[in-house]
């Protein structure tokens, strides 16, 4: 395939997709591969989108997004973290968190740069890094509760390191970082000239303590890109509304990349997002209450099955260690779907350091979780690789 970009031919379909695509092949499959809320979006979000269409709001907006929406994002961040990002100059609306990641990486990465990735982590970063001809350097978090330490991060920095990408609450582990852990990382990184990219798309989905952010640490603000969005928090993955927060000087460049990418986010979706941010807090809390109940049940059952697992504090995933049964998580997940019609994501999808784990999502109904646990327990009772 000589005509195709050499970096594209090396990319694979993500493990999440591979297994969610298999669900349709079975009559009675339970799908715990979901990366999105099972709740219906609120009427005030849908009504705002529909109203925008009826009122002919189908023209381009400002490249950065409607100012009213950027102001709503700014107010939301201030309400949650007490930090102000300027709506005019420091906020850019993107097509989901995905475009936010792509825009930021394309703004800063040169071929042969190195990007540090604490792993296991979301599988959407490494392909973009590869497409830019750059290299990913893993920072192993498996021995430190899935949270990178400042020592491990600084040990991985070379003169080629351009950036580090944090994601917390973390997909796939459900672990999040405490204020003190973030402070220690911020202190270490403020001494360096590398960029910090922090993907906080699950920041509204936290269960035991308030979310904290690198945004709270002034010393890193000039090297910080924050990626986030409304997909997960407001159950609107299909609306494609995300954003980047960055200092003005960096944001000008990200905006240029974004405008050549997509010009702006679909206008009716921007109106829906304004309504979500202005009215949605109560619903976020309600959804989180349901996730807590599901998380607690799933965690207790996994512990009962003897699987080592960390109780998730955020996102809607849990990441049990299945290494006592198998060190081939793809084989394990294949056998599980074939024998019990239960779809999960192999840990190896989240880097080689995710091998020996599987990811289960609890963004589905309680009935599905109960049935899934029964099936997993039965499977483990006789499973031999
Ligand atoms: C950590 C993380 N970042 C970004 C995304 C992409 O979000 P969006 O649907 O808003 O593009 C996902 C989706 O699963 C995710 O898990």
UniProtKB/TrEMBL annotation:
One of its GO terms (biological process) is amino acid metabolic process. Its EC number is 2.6.1.-. The keyword Zinc does not apply. Keywords: Aminotransferase, Pyridoxal phosphate, Transferase. PROSITE patterns: AA_TRANSFER_CLASS_1 (PS00105). Its cofactor is pyridoxal 5'-phosphate. Pfam families: Aminotran_1_2. The keyword Transferase applies. One of its GO terms (molecular function) is pyridoxal phosphate binding. Residues 28-376 form the Aminotransferase class I/classII large domain. Belongs to the class-I pyridoxal-phosphate-dependent aminotransferase family. This is Aminotransferase.
């Amino acid at each position: 395939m000589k005509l195709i970009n050499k970096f594209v031919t090396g990319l694979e379909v993500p493990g999440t997709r591979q297994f969610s695509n298999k669900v349709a092949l079975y009559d009675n499959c339970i799908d715990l591969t979901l990366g999105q809320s099972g709740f219906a979006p609120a009427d005030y979000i849908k009504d705002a989108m529909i109203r925008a269409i009826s009122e002919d709001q189908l023209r381009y907006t400002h490249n950065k997004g409607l100012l009213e929406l950027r102001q709503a994002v700014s107010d939301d961040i201030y309400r949650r973290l007490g930090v102000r990002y300027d709506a005019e100059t420091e906020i850019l609306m993107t097509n989901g968190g995905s475009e936010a990641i792509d825009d930021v990486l394309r703004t800063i990465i040169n071929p042969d740069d190195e990007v540090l990735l604490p792993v296991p982590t979301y599988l959407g970063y490494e392909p973009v890094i590869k497409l830019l001809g750059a290299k990913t350097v893993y920072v192993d978090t498996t021995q430190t509760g899935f949270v990178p330490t400042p020592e491990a991060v600084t040990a991985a920095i070379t003169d080629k390191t351009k950036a580090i990408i944090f994601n917390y609450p973390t997909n796939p582990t459900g672990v999040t970082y405490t204020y003190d852990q973030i402070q220690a990382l911020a202190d270490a990184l403020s001494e360096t000239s590398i960029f910090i990219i922090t993907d906080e798309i699950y920041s509204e989905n936290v269960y035991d303590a308030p979310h904290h952010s690198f945004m709270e640490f002034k010393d890193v603000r000039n090297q910080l890109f924050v990626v986030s969005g409304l997909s997960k928090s407001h159950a609107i993955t299909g609306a494609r509304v995300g954003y980047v927060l960055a200092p003005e000087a960096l944001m000008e460049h990200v905006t240029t990349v974004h405008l050549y990418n997509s010009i702006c986010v679909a206008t009716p979706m921007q109106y829906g997002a304004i309504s979500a941010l202005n009215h949605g807090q109560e619903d976020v809390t309600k959804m989180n209450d349901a996730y807590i109940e599901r998380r607690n049940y799933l965690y207790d059952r996994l512990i009962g099955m003897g699987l080592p697992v960390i109780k998730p504090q955020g996102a809607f995933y849990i990441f049990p260690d299945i290494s006592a049964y198998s060190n081939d998580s793809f084989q394990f997940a294949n056998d599980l779907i074939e024998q019990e019609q239960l779809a999960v994501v192999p840990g190896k999808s989240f880097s080689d350091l995710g091998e020996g784990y599987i990811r289960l999502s609890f963004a589905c109904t309680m009935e599905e979780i109960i049935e899934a646990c029964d099936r997993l327990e039965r499977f483990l009772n006789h499973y031999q690789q």
